[in-house]
Amino acid sequence: MSFYRAAKAGLARDTQVKIDSQFDVDEAKKCLYWIAKISGEQIEIRDTDDKVEMADSFYTTLKDGVLLCKLIHTLLPEGHGIDFSKKTFQQTKNLAFELARERERIGMFLNKAQEYGVPVTNLFQTEYLYERTNLVQVCTCIRAIGIE
């Protein structure tokens, strides 16, 4: 959860500003529409051209990893998908467990995406989505899945 961290300063701040400036609103919308179409899930996609608003929407839609897991599950051949009966997908009232499960789901998605054939260079680190440090790379990974 990026809001628990101290604000970045100096070179780290400059780097983060540069990464955030590369976020493309239209690309994020395309990714979300494609995920909705492939997974069959109903997703609320904001119709906005504001980078901050769209980045917030993109992040909150994908951060728990469930939608990403549903996407990759529909693309993988039968028997290679994700087992949604695992504890990882069960709701819990304990916040610490829920946060750990969200990270685990993102990790499961990344492992299955690599199994699907997405090059390692197009994957992202769990923290990029979970801590919201590089949503551009998350879009790149989703586009790479669409290409494979």
Could you give a quick summary of the protein structure above?
The protein is built from seven helices and no strands. It has 148 residues and is an all-alpha fold.
How would you describe what is shown here?
It is a single chain. The protein is an all-alpha fold. The chain has a single domain (8-147), classed as Actin-binding Protein, T-fimbrin, domain 1 (Orthogonal Bundle). The chain is 60% helix and 0% strand. The protein is built from seven helices and no strands. The chain has helices at residues 10-21, 25-39, 51-62, 66-75, 95-116, 126-130, 135-147. Helix 2 runs parallel beside helix 3 (51-62). The protein is globular. It starts with 9 loop residues before the first helix and ends with a helix. The mean pLDDT is 90.
List the helices and strands and how they pair.
Elements: H1 10-21, H2 25-39, H3 51-62, H4 66-75, H5 95-116, H6 126-130, H7 135-147
Helix pairs in contact: 2-3, 2-4, 2-7, 4-5
Please trace the helix and strand order, writing H or E for each element. Answer: HHHHHHH
Percent helix range: 55-70%
Q: What's the CATH first level?
A: Mainly Alpha
CATH homology group: Calponin-like domain
- The tally of helices reads 7
Low-confidence stretches: none
Structural class comes to: mainly alpha
What are its keywords?
Actin-binding Protein, T-fimbrin, domain 1; 148 residues; 7 helices; mainly alpha; actin filament binding; 0% strand; 60% helix
